[in-house]
Specification:
mainly alpha, NAD(P)/FAD-dependent oxidoreductase
């Protein structure tokens, strides 16, 4: 689940910041496949 600010960062192409925030967030449980897809966007 992304916040509005995260969505804006993605729209702005700031993928790295979003991914760092997601990986640091303790409640975010992401599948390896989803992480791989996000990394492809970098």
């Amino acid at each position: 689940v992304l916040s509005g600010a995260d969505a804006e960062k993605i729209a702005g192409g700031d993928y790295a910041e979003v991914i760092k925030a997601l990986l640091k967030h303790p409640k975010v449980l992401m599948s390896k496949r989803r992480i791989a897809l996000l990394k492809e966007l970098l």
